[in-house]
Design brief:
- The chain has about 120 residues and is of the alpha/beta class.
- The protein has a domain at about 35-60 and about 75-95.
- Helix content is about 50%, strand content about 15%.
- It has helices at about 15-30, 35-40, 45-60, 75-85, 105-120, and strands at about 1-5, 35, 65, 90-95.
- It has a four-stranded parallel beta sheet with strand order 2-1-3-4, with helices on both faces.
- Strand 3, helix 4 and strand 4 form a beta-alpha-beta unit.
- Helix 3 packs parallel to helix 4.
- The model has no long low-confidence stretch (mean pLDDT about 95).
Length: about 120
């Protein structure tokens, strides 16, 4: 399976980077092909080029996994593309959230909806 991992690149803590790396390693050891932006997207390119590279990788992915970080603008951009392409998602990491509207709540609802459609 081809998987795109939405995650923080710039500003991610060393702990977060280690968790992301371990997650990618586990997926690849299970035989999946993973597009991991810190490794597979040219991060020295312009912002537009980075978005274009991720666009192509998300479009070609069978599934998109999410390490959500609210401070990451790129994460929000990639989430929008994933939503527009109607890609199945898997939550890899999500901060706790309360009863108010929020991206973490929306992502959880989105995954629940996708799972519900798979069962039908």
């Amino acid at each position: 399976m081809k998987i795109f991992l939405i995650c923080s690149v710039r500003g991610a803590s060393p702990d977060t980077i280690e968790k992301q790396n371990q997650y990618v390693k586990a997926l690849e050891n299970a035989g999946h092909t993973v597009h991991y932006p810190p490794r597979d997207t040219n991060q020295t390119a312009s912002g537009l080029d980075i978005c274009s590279q991720n666009y192509k990788a998300i479009f070609n992915a069978d599934e998109v996994h999410i390490f959500y970080a609210p401070e990451s603008q790129g994460t929000h951009f990639d989430l929008g593309m994933t939503f527009a392409f109607h890609k199945p998602i898997v939550i890899a990491s999500l901060p706790e959230f309360g009863p108010e509207k929020s991206f973490p709540r929306m992502i959880t609802e989105w995954q629940t909806e996708i799972e519900h459609r798979r069962i039908k």
